[in-house]
Amino acid sequence: MKNSSGFSLVELLIATSLASFVLVGVVTISAQLARNQIDGIRSGTVTGWSVVSYMSMAKEIEDGNVLVFPVNNGDAADQIVVCKNWTRVTGAPLDASVPVSLIQYCVDPTAAVAPETGFRLRRYARVSVGNICPTAGVPVACDAAGPSWTENGTPSNGVVGYRLEKIVGLPLVFLRDNTIGGVRLRYVIGRQTPTSNEPNPKSTTFNFGISMAKQYSSTVD
Question: N or C: lower Cβ tally within 10 Å for the chain?
Fold first, then answer.
């Protein structure tokens, strides 16, 4: 029997080519998994902080005494304006020694820049002793420029939430509902539709009502 002389050059080339194809596939899959993991962590972090911000907004609306905008029962908008420490019954602060807060939350209509998705939620606040709650709802423009409002001497115009999307069939976020003495919030946090980078999108839908801290039996606040 002749001794084996080892692999031929052709066999080595074939084996090397097959190994290269396998290695490229493994590296590609690993890179995709790593990218999805990083995107998932980043998305989860942003969404988590946004949930906290949206819950803070809900609490601030709940503590409001006057719903300035939307104006009429059943009106819906992407802006909400509330006042704290004020009543329209007397047209004055509930406590003259405490600052009056005029607060607006709104959905910035500016399109998101990739990789960010959805809309941004902005908060404007004008807070000071001697502040006056407007008699009519006039929301300010919702953009980066915003109004020159200050909260206890500090400029107030900040993005407080990200990745906001609209609920299908409910194109406006805030709905005035006098039957509960407040407002209904309808929005989604996260992505609702799959993409090539996010084939299994994650989102949370919020659709709930908030009864505000209006004065008892008040029909004008």
Answer: N
Q: Say if 78 falls within a structural domain.
A: yes
Domain for residue 196, yes or no? Answer: yes
Q: What is the mean pLDDT of the chain?
A: 79
Query: Is residue 28 very low, low, confident or very high in pLDDT (cuts 50, 70, 90)?
Result: low
What the block records as the tokens of 8 is: 């031929």
Expressed as residue numbers, the domain containing 96 is: 29-211
Q: Please give the structure tokens belonging to residue 133.
A: 């709650």
Instruction: Tell me how far CA of residue 60 lies from CA of 10, 46, 47, 51, 70, in angstroms.
Output: 75, 21, 20, 14, 16
DSSP 2: P
Phi-psi category of 105—alpha, beta or left, where left has phi over 0 and alpha has psi -120 to 50?
beta
Number of domains in the chain: 1
Q: How many CA atoms lie within 13 A of 205 on its CB side?
A: 6
Residue 208 confidence (pLDDT) above 80: yes
pLDDT in tens, 81-92: 999 999 988 889
Residue 107 inside a domain? The answer is: yes
